[in-house]
Design brief:
alpha/beta; Urease, subunit C, domain 1; TIM Barrel; 2 domains; 8-stranded parallel sheet; 9 helices; 21 strands; 27% strand; globular
């Protein structure tokens, strides 16, 4: 196979848009990007993709909180499951992801982490979305705010257990969602900060003062803001109040129109600025599949009209929104520009995970993780590390 050229493209760079541009892809990287007048000669062996009638070329989106898709979940603990999810994600414009766990028995989690480490070392090849790490959601959470996390497997924060899991993962755990108010003397928080793992408040019932204390001691992230945490009250601002008021905390949001009212995005952006906003899907195995009954962490989930809820008590249980649909929702809700859309779906995530040297923006020398948007804003073409991984049928 020859090299790949995207021509006559409107290319979205980190801080501006380049009209009538080209992209030259060689091996797994962006070789060059520039104006069409500077495009190198294209040989017959090369692949040329004309973007004349396309909307934009954007950097591949990065989902840092996704449990599954296409009928599979990372907790299935099989190579087949990870491969299927990595193959499915480019259809929604995702080229990198954090495989996200859920509270389960210790041996289940251990097996899932070992499986993800094996996949990362031996199967993490170009042509599908790249596993860039693991998001450990639970089991060190508060039962009061468990949401769809199985209560019987919830554990108190445990440094020794975390160290074992981090070793099993091959040091691939990049984010941990936990309840800091249960962390005695912030022992686990200290370990996370010393080892470079992002501590995220989630499924937490911390008070406003407890939340501020945790943030002061190093919590710098909030998992799916508004959900699985003590909400904002005028006499007790709770986790939400602390997170919105503390400038250094990043926030995950699920813009599906179900997990929170769309107008609250305006509040988030006013309080945090776009630089601290991270779009996620919290996608579960039903993503990309018809409505029906599915499984999440051993629990039955009913999926109807884009909403996922536990059959047992109606609690929200992840989502089926795609990253591209989330992006489109943000255009409708707060009229984000294309540069701003890229910031909250790719740039911020890459910087947060410290992979911005190779992902998150379109620049020569970076991984060729690219998405072509059609005139309707839908995914037309996705390239993962220099290989075409999805192309919409015409």
């Amino acid at each position: 196979m020859g090299e790949i050229y995207l021509t006559n493209a409107t290319i979205v760079l980190e801080n501006k848009v380049l009209p009538k541009g080209y992209l030259h892809i060689k091996d797994e990287q962006i070789q060059s990007v520039g104006e069409m007048k500077d495009c190198p000669p294209i040989s017959k062996q090369d692949i040329k993709y004309d973007c004349t009638d396309k909307q934009y070329v954007i950097p591949g989106m990065i989902d840092i909180h996704v449990h599954g898709a296409a009928g599979y979940d990372f907790m299935d603990g099989s190579t087949e499951a990870v491969e299927a999810i990595a193959h499915a994600l480019p259809k929604e414009g995702v080229t990198s992801f954090l495989a996200t766990t859920i509270t389960n028995p210790v041996d289940y989690t251990s097996h899932a982490l070992e499986n993800l480490n094996s996949y990362r070392l031996h199967k993490n090849k170009p042509g599908v979305a790249e596993l860039v790490g693991i998001h450990l959601e639970g089991p060190f959470i508060n039962k009061v705010q468990k949401g769809a996390q199985p209560e019987e497997s919830i554990l108190p924060p445990d440094v020794a257990r975390f160290k074992k899991w981090q070793a099993l993962s091959g040091n691939a755990i990049k984010v941990i969602t936990y309840a800091p108010e249960l962390d005695r003397n912030f022992e686990l928080l200290t370990e996370l900060n010393q080892t470079g793992v992002i501590p995220s408040m989630g499924h937490t019932n911390a008070t406003y003062d407890e939340s501020k204390d945790a943030i002061h001691n190093g919590v710098s992230h909030a998992t799916h803001l508004f959900n699985g945490m003590k909400g904002l009250h005028h006499r007790e601002p709770g986790v939400v109040g602390a997170v919105l008021l503390q400038d250094d905390v990043f926030v995950e949001i699920i813009p599906d129109g179900i997990h929170f009212h769309p107008d609250l995005v305006k509040l988030i952006v006013k309080m945090k600025g776009l630089e601290k906003v991270l779009v996620i899907t919290d996608g579960m195995r039903a993503k990309g599949l018809p409505d029906g009954n599915y499984d999440l962490g051993g629990q039955e989930v009913i999926v109807r009209d884009g909403s996922c809820s536990l059959a047992s008590n109606g609690s929200l249980a992840g989502s089926v929104v795609t990253m591209n649909k989330a992006r489109l929702n943000l255009i409708e809700w707060i009229d984000l520009s294309i540069v701003e859309q890229v910031r909250v779906t790719a740039v911020n995530q890459a910087k947060r995970l410290k992979v911005f040297d190779r992902k998150g923006s379109i620049e020569a020398g970076k991984d060729a993780d690219l998405v072509v948007l059609g005139s309707d804003g839908q995914i037309e073409l996705t390239i993962c590390r220099g290989k075409i991984s999805y192309q919409r049928e015409t």
